[in-house]
Amino acid sequence: MTKRVFYLLGVLVVLGMLLAACGSTGQSNQPQAVKTVVVTVQAPAKGGESPSGFGETLKTVKDRGYLICGVNAQLPGFGYVDDQGNYKGFDVDFCHAVAAAIFGDPSKVEFRPLTAKERFTALQTGEIDVLIRNTTWTLTRDTELGANFAPTTFYDGQGIMVRKDSGITKLEDLEGAKICVATGTTTELNLADQMAAHNIDYTPVVFETADQVFGAYEEGRCDAVTTDKSGLVSRRVTLKNPDDHVILDITLSKEPLGPVVRQGDDQWFDIIKWVVFATFTGEEMGINSKNVDQIKASTNNPNVKKFLGLEGEMGQKLGLSDDWAYNIIKMVGNYAEIYDRNLGPGTPFNLPRGLNASWKDGGLLYAPPIR
Ligand SMILES: N[C@@H](CCC(=O)N[C@@H](CS)C(=O)NCC(=O)O)C(=O)O
Q1: Cα 228 to ligand 1 centre (Å)
Q2: For residue 38, what pLDDT is reported?
């Protein structure tokens, strides 16, 4: 346990340094005073100390009776609160998929809205079980921040939005511009790197939440706004006149977004990984929420049988029941259903699948075998 507390302290000190480094305006690269916070929270996952890598997150979640999922509350299509006060979106559906796999009930989730800046502390202190909030997989987060990244659920890249009448079409046109950006994000760091690489002077105007970032842009306090392209598409529909704004044909970075867990609990990490893979596998096999019962009743394909819990005891290997993947597909849907429901042609976003297509359709989504 002592080892774990030291580890946690170390992570929080590094976290403090990173947040201090990206929390300021202009001088993002200046080292700043770091406050050491002594945290008395008992880390729920002790897997790092056990040779089998079995932690306690699954047990904690089961004993509690519901999952606590860290999400975005300000990103229509991905993580937001609807008119009825319910969390909705692509990321939110992956929280439901985890609950379906564990409890056979997708509603057994409590959502914790988190800003970009708060999210890793919430994960590390055990306030949430999993973070599913448009979070980019980077080396620093995967190591110093004590995070483990499940497979990417959305391959994205950073973009820039401007007013159509601004005449801005390329990066160089942003010389001397004010650019609205959220703090605690890869966005802020990529912007600084790309502008430095192209020798372009600009002023970052930094805020904590998407509402503040896009509010300031809408009020004309910035010439441009930058975030993941998914975020731009999402927030563009919330502007007074979406058609007055254009997302430039520029991609500043790679932003692989996906679920994140704490380090130290391999079993929990495996569960989150395979929940994502189950949604990919459903699409690969052509199994969806509408046809899953009929396929389950009639199949003699051994791979489908293993996937749907009819043979091979795949769920038990994860510490779950064997109908874990059946429940995901039946109750939440396969990846294509989750994507289309939240981002597809029937939504205001109508986002083409692009890189987020199954490998069978030339995309990057590829699940290892469930066997
Ligand atoms: N994918 C990037 C950016 C994620 C991000 O938080 N983007 C902002 C865009 S403004 C956002 O979603 N903000 C919503 C909020 O903080 O409430 C990362 O992981 O750092």
Answers
A1: 8
A2: 37
The CA distance from 7 to 309, in Å, is 38
For residue 312, the SS3 value is: coil
Domains and CATH numbers, the chain: 1-42 (no CATH), 54-154+257-371 (3.40.190.10), 158-253 (3.40.190.10)
Nearest-CA residue for ligand 1 atom 6 is: 116
Cβ neighbors of 139 (< 8 A, separation 6 or more) are none
> Structure pTM?
0.88
Environment class of 83 (CB within 10 Å of its CB; exposed 0-12, middle 13-18, buried 19+):
exposed
| 225 CA → ligand 1 middle, Å | 12
Q: Which residue has the tokens 């975005």?
A: 72
State the distance from the centre of ligand 1 to the C-alpha of 185, rounded, in angstroms.
6
Q: Which three-class secondary structure string do you get for 195-219? A: HHHCCCCEEEEEECCHHHHHHHHHC
Residues with CB under 6 A from ligand 1: 72, 74-75, 115-116, 134-136, 182, 185-187, 209-210, 213, 227-228, 231, 255, 257
CB 77 within 8 A of CB 343: yes
pLDDT tens digits, residue range 197-241? 999 999 999 999 999 999 999 999 999 999 999 999 999 999 999
At which residue do the structure tokens 């919330």 appear? 238
CA 250 to chain CA centroid, nearest Å: 22
pLDDT at 25 over 80: no
Tokens at 205, concatenated? 């105007």
